Amino acid sequence: MIKIVQICVVALLLTMLTPLVHAVELNGKLVQGGLVWGQLSPGSEVSLNGEPVKIGPNGEFVFGFGRDEGPTASLVILHRDGTREERTLRIKKREFDIERVEGLPPKTVTPPPEWRERRKVETGKVREARSHMADNMHWSRGFIRPAEGRFSGFYGSQRILNGQPRSPHYGLDIAGPTGTPIHAPAGGVVRLAVPDFLLEGGIVIIDHGFGVTSTLFHMNSVDVKEGTWVHQGDLIGTIGATGRASGPHVDWRVNWKDVRLDPQLLINDSIEE
Asked: Which Gene3D superfamilies does the record cross-reference, listed alphabetically (predicted)?
């Protein structure tokens, strides 16, 4: 009888411990614009809102939330032993400012018809550069601000350009004198490096792996080439006012696949969420 009781107690303890074994700690910020990462046992699977999430060889994964993400997201984990875990993630809502930008060249606010074909080519190149799902995990080593200077524009703000309402701003603007060095915010492979896009001006896109990319606009000089690898802190160009810009600055954007994230949440310059 005692032995039977002991077996039952052990079985009960194992049942209670199973969720702890499978417990997955999520790092990052569950907030609009936030990047979140974690690690599972190798061989596990993850999906977010029904879409598969890339898993690394050691079980690493990363995902993010856009500016207008709803109040909840569904995370489903299929553990290696077949156990299915479902979580409802609560996403914190943020309030965004209205930002007025004056003094822009009129044709950059309302592009003329002759720009349309060129813009199709340029935006296609940006989409292609952000579409890679490389195996490197430079995103896991953290980010640094790409340039010294004051923050002059913020993620999520509703922009009014020359008095005309436009789409929200999806980057972090850092203003500084023309020629101020711009450094790689994290390591990765350069997927795009062009000096003269119509609106972005000098542009560089760095693939940090797993669909996480950094894009930097309005560069005065582009000092890297497509296909080259950069380490965090490497010089990639300089601040300028190329493209649609009212003054010298770098516009830093971070994506997870096609989801636009808030770069300021990834660096030590903390913000009130």
From this structure: Glucose Permease (Domain IIA) (2.70.70.10)
